[in-house]
Amino acid sequence: MKNPEILVIDDEKQIQKLLAITLQTNDYKVNSAFTAKEGLILAKNHIPDLILLDIGLPDKSGHEVLKELRVWYTKPIIILSVNNAEEDIVRALDNGANDYLAKPFRSGELIARIRSSLRGSFLSDSKPSCINELEINFDLRVVKKNNTPIKLTATEYNLLTLFVKNEGRVLTHQYLLREIWGPGYIEQSQYLRVFIAQLRKKIETEPNHPEYILTESGVGYRFVDKEQTL
Fold it and tell me: Which of 6, 93, 172, 224 fits a disulfide with 220 by CB distance 3.0 to 4.6 angstroms?
């Protein structure tokens, strides 16, 4: 399998240099763009496996670039930004970002997020997914933990499936409510809290200390492979 290619769109030379060293050390190929215009051209001419996108670009907001990319680009996009305001994070995630990292960030955390996003993008709709002791068979709608079937309600199964197919990606409260219950429920956060709690009781070893479904405070939830996180 070829080494994944990553496009970095960021106008800071020092960040570009640091990212290039970090990514290449971890066997990723790297292309760099310093402006939104250059990044969009590179993305179309040589489609990368993942994009690292800075919000504060000199010629156009990263939020606008994200929207333009999501018209056609279906692979993971991770936002990099000095702004870690909750509303900014939610805006980026709702517009299609897979993840959001505030600067400065640890190299190890970045690599873990990249690995997780890439794994999630390669998941098949039908092939059974095995994550540690969990196995999800999408064709049969069967979930097992340590080879023992877990009885899930239809809503719990749909919620777990959505998480697994977006492994590593932060899913906002509004996104989850819209996808599972419909547009009319995006303000009904109590639905989500109840079902997350029920799902954790069934798939987590210690529901009060979850290892799969992690809470992103004020934003949403992230499903992770606990053995791949740092």
Answer: 172
CATH of the domain at 47: 3.40.50.2300
Q: Match 């020092």 to its residue by tokens.
A: 14
Choosing from 59, 86, 121, the residue where a domain stops is 121
Structural domain count, the chain: 2
* Residue 209 CB coordination number (10 Å): 8
206 shares its domain with 145: yes
Token pair in block for residue 80: 């990099």
Residues 6+ apart with CB under 8 A from 12: 54
- Kindly report the pTM of this predicted structure: 0.67
Retrieve residue 181's tokens.
Answer: 């219950």
In the numeric block, which tokens belong to residue 89? 């994070």
How many Å apart are CA 19 and CA 70, to the nearest integer?
23
- The answer as to whether 230 is a domain residue is no
Instruction: Render each residue's pLDDT in the chain as its tens digit; 230 residues.
Output: 578 999 999 999 999 999 999 999 999 999 999 999 999 999 999 999 999 999 999 999 999 999 999 889 988 899 999 887 878 888 888 888 888 888 888 898 899 889 877 876 655 445 567 888 898 887 778 899 999 999 888 788 889 999 988 888 899 999 899 888 877 778 888 879 999 999 999 999 999 999 999 999 889 999 988 665 44
